[in-house]
Structures are given as C-alpha cells and as structure tokens.
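Box 3.1 A note on notation
Throughout this textbook, protein chains are presented in two layers. The first layer is the amino acid sequence; the second is a token string describing backbone geometry. Keep the layers aligned when reading.
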Amino acid sequence: MTPKLEVSALSYSYHTMDGETQALSNISFTADTGEFIAIVGPSGCGKSTLLSLISGLLAPDEGTVRIDGIPLSESRCNIGYMLQKDHLFEWRTIFSNASLGLEIQHKLDKNHLEKLHTLMETYGLKQFEESRPSELSGGMRQRAALIRTLALEPDLLLLDEPFSALDYQTRLSVCDDISTIIRNSKKTAVLITHDLSEAVSAADRIVILTRRPGRIKAILPISFSKPDLSPLERRNDPAFTSYFNEVWKILQN
C-alpha cells in the first residue's frame, strides 16, 4: 500500500554570509493514512525545518517528499499546518476566524459553511461562534485554530508544537482533546514536540532525531494494550513509563 507521506533521503542546509549550516541529513520515514507520527529531538536539530520541507515552504537540497506516491511539487494534496500559537484575530469572531482559510481560498460557499458549522458543533464551539478570541480559554482557542485547519479538509496535518504556549494542565487536556479529534477524523498527522510524554501519549510511531545536523537515530513504534486509548488514558497505562524511558535512553545515547 502506498503511504500517505513518504520522506526519502531528505537533506537541507541554511546559507548565510557566514557560511553553510546543515540542518538535516538523510531523513527518511513514511506515514500511512490515518497514522499519527511524532518527531522529537534536541533543540536545534531541525524538527521545524523538517515540517517546512514536508509542507513545501522550503525546498530540500537533496531527497524527495511524496504524498500518495506523487512528488510534493506535483501533488494536489491539501496540507494543514498548525502552529505554536493560535493566531486568532481579536477583531474577528470565532466563526470568522475559523472560516479565514476558506475565505482566503474563495470557498465561502454554502456547502463549506455548513460543514464549518458542523465542525463547530461537533467540537464544542457552537455556542461561541459569535464570541471574540479573548473570551475563550487557551484550550478553546487552540480548538478553534484546529477547526480552521480542518475546515480546509486537509489530507495531511502538520503540527508544530501546537500545545507549547499553554500551561501544563491545559496542555494535557488540549493534547488529549485535539489528538482525539485528529484520530476520529482519520487524518494523517505529523507532530513536532519537545515533550516526550506528549509524543508517547499521542503517537503511533516516534521518530527520534540526533543533534544538528538532524539524522534519524531511531523510529519507535508505540502500541498499547487497547488501541483506542486517548492520550490521557495512555498516560495511566503501565506501558507508558517504559516507552518514555526508552525514548529518553535513545536520546541520551
């Protein structure tokens, strides 16, 4: 079966007046349809650069990115990108913030707007459609940002530390909430995180990178006794600590 995402021998260097800095070297992995991949590694190892390459915001020095077997440059796959901050505009209501991507792509037709209203209702923001961002909690704002991304019906979701700006308690809740939403929508997702617990609680596989230039040190499959456990439920499973310790050990070696 052709994977949804195939990253093959990807390398990238930044060029400045002071010279060349290699960020990534020979990165290869795949993600099947509906699979949740987490990428962890030391600060500065190229994790966010890797997402930029997968999204097409940067072009690799070497290697290829394929979506459904088609080179990224030729693919018509819709890629959703969720950043660390929600980037909601205070002068727009929550609904008009959630519809911003549709507006930019000139898709504010009846069909798309009905689907957006359904997303707002399904994920608990229906009663806040006319509210302003400042009236919502951090977790609800991130949920609105995810709805804005899902409204564009992406085939692939890229998540660049989307919970890092939240306090710890909210972060646990929102990670649980958003990871469950992504799984229920059967989206393929790639998550960048510094939080090893977050990676173990959310992912099907964890890609572990070395220090810069980032290379793949290991790819660790994650499997719990019950396949449908939520991230919070995984944290209470006996296997959670074992996986956490294994990822930590790989990073330290």
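The CA atoms of residues 38 and 199 lie 6 Å apart. The chain has nine helices and ten strands.
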